[in-house]
Amino acid sequence: MEYYLIKADTDYTDVPVVESWFDRIDVRDMKRARASRLPERELLFLQGNPHTTFTDILFRPFLLVSEKMQEVITLYEPDTIFKEIVLLDTVNQLAELYFCPVLHKVDCLTEQSEFNLDRSVIKKAIINVSKTGDKSVFLLAGVQGFQAVGRLDFIESLLRRDIRGLTLTPIETIDEVMAMEWK
User: Fold this and answer.
1) What pLDDT sits at residue 9?
2) For a FRET experiment, which of 72, 112, 127, 132 has its CA 20 to 30 Å from that of 142?
3) Of 123, 154, 163, the residue nearest 12 (C-alpha)
4) How far is CA 61 from CA 25, 65, 110, in A?
């Protein structure tokens, strides 16, 4: 199986910039066990920018996806919890509906993976596929921020729908269960 690290496309320079969200959303609640503490719908304000490009995926201040991407996630991971987030630019009268997916966190990075000091940047990702189960899209456990991973079938489905705003980095995989059986 092939997996890809899903990142923001830095070619999009005018993505929405959310202001003053800290007192409205607690990122510690973006776990399946605590998702009920998150509001079902929240309105967040944007910095005024008449050139804002509403891409299909945002990673700041936390993971947000468009309705089109939410539909694909639901196809592959039907038990995903979503919270509605309305992004509003009052200066330019722009608004867009996003969804905050509360994805499963999977502890599958191997010791051979490489990071920066605070584990907010993955320099080299190697995952143990025997730990991913049947998850087609998930967040990596043991790292800072929202590091999303997609299995090839999920990624192909996104690409067929012309999802904008993401880049893909192939991830090396190992299967420790299979390796143990060969010994």
Assistant:
1) 95
2) 72
3) 163
4) 10, 12, 27
How far does the chain reach from its first CA to its final CA, in angstroms?
A: 22
Instruction: Report the alpha-carbon distance of residue 114 to residue 111 in Å, rounded.
Output: 8
How far are the Cα atoms of 23, 67, 86, 119, 145 from residue 42, in angstroms, in the given order? 12, 15, 6, 29, 20
What are 118-150's pLDDT values in tens digits? 888 899 999 999 999 999 999 999 998 889 999
**């299909």: which residue's tokens?**
56
Cα distances (Å, whole numbers) of residue 112 to 24, 32, 119, 128, 182 = 38, 28, 14, 10, 20
Q: What is the pTM of this model?
A: 0.90
Q: What percent of the chain has pLDDT over 70?
A: 96
Place of tokens 């993505």: 15
Residues with Cβ within 8 Å of 163's Cβ and at least 6 positions away in sequence, in order, are 56, 57, 66, 68, 69, 72
DSSP string, 12-28: ------EES-TTT--GG
User: pLDDT tens, 14-66?
Assistant: 999 999 887 788 888 888 888 999 989 999 999 999 999 999 999 988 999 99
CB 140 within 8 A of CB 132: no
For residue 182, the model assigns a pLDDT of 42
